Every structure is written in C-alpha cells, then in structure tokens.
Amino acid sequence: QVATVTEYGAFIKIPGCRKQGLVHKTHMSSCRVDKPSEIVDVGDKVWVKLIRKEMKDDKLKLSLSMKVVNQGTGKDLDPNNVSLDQDERKKRMFRDYTSQKITLEAVLNTVCKKCGCKGHFAKECFVQPGGTKYSLIPEEEEEEAAAAGYERDKKTSVADDSSKKRKK
Q1: Which of 55, 62, 54 is nearest to 10 (CA)?
Q2: Are 62 and 22 in contact (CB under 8 A)?
Q3: Phi and psi of 12, rounded to 5°?
Q4: In this structure, what CATH number is given to the domain that contains residue 16?
Q5: CB burial class (10 A; 0-12, 13-18, 19+) of residue 63?
Q6: Which of 30, 56, 60, 155 is most exposed, with the fewest beta carbons within 10 Å of its own?
Q7: pLDDT in tens, 129-143
Q8: 20-24 and 59-65: which strand pairing?
C-alpha cells in the first residue's frame, strides 16, 4: 500500500513488515515518469518487487520496483533480473566526453580524376566543368618550390605570348 508520495518516488508499506520501501520514479513505469503523483496516490495498493537491500548508517533501506511486476496479476515480469541489470549497466557506462577535443590530421593521398587536384575523390569534387579549381594549401617546403615553379612558368608564358604576337 502506498504510504507517501514524494517528488522522487513513493514509499510503500509492506504487509507483515514494519519497514517501508521506496519505489523511485525511474522504477514506477517503463515510460518516463516526471511526477510520481500522476502514477500513484496515497492508499493505492500496488504490486512491487524487492530489487535491493542496503545497510546505510545502521538503517536498512529497501528499494522496490513496480515496472518489473504486472500490476494486474502481481506476476514477476523479470524473474532473472535481466532488465534491472541492463538499467544498471546503462548508468555505469555513461561517460562525459565533452571536454575531450577531437583533432583530425589526415589528408587523402589521392588525385581527383575530375579536376586533377590533390586531396579528394572525384565523387566529392564540386568543380563544375570549366569552373574554378581548388586544391589543398601546400605545406611550407612545397610552397617555396611551387613559388619558384610559378615564376618560371610565368616567364615562359610571357615569352610565349610575345612570340605569338610577332607571328601575327
């Protein structure tokens, strides 16, 4: 029988025992319970299962569950405590990884068949035919070599342009 209802659960009087046990709101139903007063009222008779006995400060604390017992017949729905073990594992396995930062340091060692740039595949290429080509930013050593090669290419292209004008 329900003795008192609190914001975190309900205390249940156990017949033939002077102790009361607590059904926490997480053990009232398989669905989420925000207010235990919406599930039970003082004086209601409910079926419960003892899930834990704990001695704390020389006091015996009894933890009860309603969700593993059929409330119509009183039949134990979890005789091997499988669902209770799963609930305990879920509580223990949670770890907060928000403080750890994820860093990605991988670069694809490939050349796109569509645009000819390094670092991505053709299916990931967003260059339209005849559009702007994009490539990865070169590292410092590559940058110096590329700058020297660019200057060389620029000089030869200027020479090519002037020779084309002369031919006309």
Answers
A1: 62
A2: yes
A3: -115, 130
A4: 2.40.50.140
A5: middle
A6: 56
A7: 665 655 666 666 655
A8: parallel
